[in-house]
């Protein structure tokens, strides 16, 4: 596994039939993959859920930031 201080890695993902790219540090990609496995969802489906929550917010951030915040909140329980 890469160091937690690695540069972001860009990946392509399809959300609601639309391709997009997301840049996250490897530690966040690993945590997101783990969350998807635990939820028994494809990674793209979990990202779509996070994206829907992000869009519904009064002042939505970018998708990568929303994913990081979602993972942080999940870790805090």
Automatic annotation (TrEMBL):
GO terms for molecular function: transferase activity. InterPro entries: RHH_dom (IPR027373), RHH_sf (IPR038268). The keyword Heme does not apply. Signal peptide: none annotated. Coiled coil: none annotated. Residues 8-73 form the Ribbon-helix-helix domain. Keywords: Transferase. Pfam families: RHH_4. This is Aryl-sulfate sulfotransferase.
